[in-house]
Amino acid sequence: xxxxxxxxxxxxxxxxxxxxxxxxxxxxxxxxxxxxxxxxxxxxxxxxxxxxxxxxxxxxxxxxxxxxxxxxxxxxxxxxxxxxxxxxxxxxxxxxxxxxxxxxxxxxxxxxxxxxxxxxxxxxxxxxxxxxxxxxxxxxxxxxxxxxxxxxxxxxxxxxxxxxxxxxxxxxxxxxxxxxxxxxxxxxxxxxxxxxxxxxxxxxxxxxxxxxxxxxxxxxxxxxxxxxxxxxxxxxxxxxxxxxxxxxxxxxxxxxxxxxxxxxxxxxxxxxxxxxxxxxxxxxxxxxxxxxxxxxxxxxxxxxxxxxxxxxxxxxxxxxxxxxxxxxxxxxxxxxxxxxxxxxxxxxxxxxxxxxxxxxxxxxxxxxxxxxxxxxxxxxxxxxxxxxxxxxxxxxxxxxxxxxxxxxxxxxxxxxxx
Length: 418
Description:
alpha/beta, Purple Acid Phosphatase, chain A, domain 2, 6-stranded mixed β-sheet, 15 strands, elongated
């Protein structure tokens, strides 16, 4: 019997995005989150007395600013070596982008699979055969899994592969392959990486994306961790997800349909945030708050958005270790504009004109051509993924709809000339 941990997409020292701009935000906790999550992973491996750890790509987050990232990794590998734990790694697209890591010496218990072709490692004492290939370059558009060797008879066979399979939303289609390609090799376990959401692809053979160990922004919500696998008699006896993240990202929805005044909204928001906090198990919580429902406060929220944002952030801060990445108004009007203002008044006519505005669903860059030229000259990754400059047409239309609602709200609240 032996046990092992399968992890991937650690992105060590990757900057977490979304909270740094706020004064008094837990900047140090944000910066160190991937290291602390990695420490939790190391502790898990030692506590569970695993035989080895598999890292299926993107250990790093591209090139380092200095050697501190590598020194941190080497120190943690030293802890595993003292515990008799081996580590097997295939590099992924982010690792391949690093120049320093290509010459950084590895501790004795760490095996990095080569990039030239698939390679196999046999551990006779465990009856184990591992197969893997690292990325030579950042972009790998060929099916490297097709060149992996068939399973070695009489051994428990594991394949390490950094891939998007046939494609996954939000992930580049690197090392494309089909599940059939993997099943045909006859391996007992496929340790995949690249996709940041945990996904059990197949049980026989076992094919798993473990997800990343620490969410880095609002598109990586929920618990994050690694997979602990127990093997008995050459067969998988148990597969467990173990959570190791230290900062949790989430979407929190507050239905304010019944809120008619400020105090009602405060109570509703606080209750929603407290509910999210209880599910975080003591972790720092970074939330996107969505105010939803057909609300009598719809216009007031749009018209005074900046003030409401600061006051709601105050509620979150008062709870301790709850930080708001963004507040979005997803409410609707309680009654129609026609019921609020008659069409035969100047205000009614102006409101109706705004309501009928067609902003179009084209990309923002087509409306502002100069942005397109600027974006083409920027280095990859310089723009925040949430930037309106590179959001989808649907997201840009959503933004323009918010502009429409703001205009309507301002007119409704101040249309009497006050």
